[in-house]
Amino acid sequence: MTQKLPIATLGAAFIAIGSAFVNTPSANAAIFSLDDSHSWATGSDTLGSILGFSMVNVPDPELTPLTSVTTLFSPLGDLTFSPEIQYRQIGSTWKTWSGGYQGEVYSSDGKDSITINLPSNIAAFDFYVQPNEFSLYEITVTAASTTGATTSLLQEVLGDGGAKYFGFYTTGQDLISNITVTANSKAAGFGIGELYLASAASKPVPEPASVLGLLAFGLFGAASTLKHKKSS
Questions:
Q1: Nearest to 137 by CA among 187, 189, 192
Q2: Structure confidence by residue, pLDDT tens digits, 81-111
Q3: pLDDT, position 110
Q4: If 0-12 CB within 10 Å is exposed, 13-18 middle and 19+ buried, where does residue 129 land?
Q5: Does any domain span residue 231?
Q6: Does 217 map to a domain?
Q7: With CB atoms counted within 10 Å of each terminal CB, which end of the chain scores lower, N or C?
Q8: What are the DSSP E strand ranges found in 46-163?
Q9: Distance CA 103, CA 80 (A)
Q10: Which tens digit of pLDDT belongs to each residue from 207-228?
Q11: Which residues pair with 133 in a beta bridge?
């Protein structure tokens, strides 16, 4: 009697394992954060250049400074804010930023926390955050996925020309539902700017299950070849 499985049975077993992983949510669904070292300003651009997401800018609505905003329009759908934010311009109604950026900023107007509800089908999102006060304060950004998973990133950010990058992305079937920004109460609020997002259609990250499936077929093929050689 032998304990060795027939090659066909072994191949079927690997394929079955691959199928099991494909149908396991934990193998397909995950949400990750990226700190300031992964921003395009540092030359890393992890979401775009490395992971391959097609990031799309949320365009400047060109509003009158200090206008209250509850919705921003993007090519991928609307972003809504709760509570409302305030449109500002660097150099006039918002003093400093980082990386030479001179565009629009959205102020929390003294509020410690805001939530950004993203359009449907979003797999990646990044932006910059800076405290209102000029000292160093902790900023926490939490991303929630459509499956209920969350991930949080805390960074110390300088309010005087120190805006920092926060990035998030999902793998598998998961998507990003909303983003919550929370600052230390002593920061007297914060500003956000340089908002980018990518749809699931541009999601390039391979799923672990697909790699396992390829491994199963590869082992099956290798075993079949070996059997053929032994029979020759």
A1: 187
A2: 999 999 999 999 999 999 999 999 999 999 9
A3: 98
A4: buried
A5: no
A6: no
A7: N
A8: 56-57, 68-74, 77-89, 104-107, 113-117, 122-131, 136-145, 150-158
A9: 20
A10: 444 434 433 444 444 444 434 4
A11: none
Quick one: residue 47, left, alpha or beta (phi over 0 = left, psi -120 to 50 = alpha)? Answer: alpha
Question: Residue 169: what residue type?
Answer: Y
Q: Which amino acid is at 86?
A: Q
Question: What CATH number is attached to the domain comprising 163?
Answer: 2.60.120
Neighbours of 73 (CB within 10 A): 12
Length of the chain as a residue count: 232
- Sign (positive/negative) of CA torsion 195, 200, 204, 210? positive
Tell me, what amino acid is at 198?
A
Question: Please, which pLDDT band fits residue 229 given cuts at 50, 70 and 90?
Answer: very low
Query: What is the residue range of 181's domain?
Result: 30-205
Q: Count structural domains, the chain.
A: 1
Residue 59 lies in a domain: yes
Q: Is the full-model pTM beyond 0.85?
A: no
Token look-up 């609020």 returns 189
Q: Is residue 151 a contact partner of residue 214, using CB atoms and an 8 Å limit?
A: no
Pick 42 or 189 by higher pLDDT.
189
Task: Tell me, yes or no, whether 24 lies in a domain.
Answer: no
Relative to beta strand 190-199, strand 176-183 is unpaired
Residue with tokens 């669904």: 29
CA-CA distance, 224 to 205, in Å (whole number)? Answer: 31
Two tokens, residue 185: 């109460």
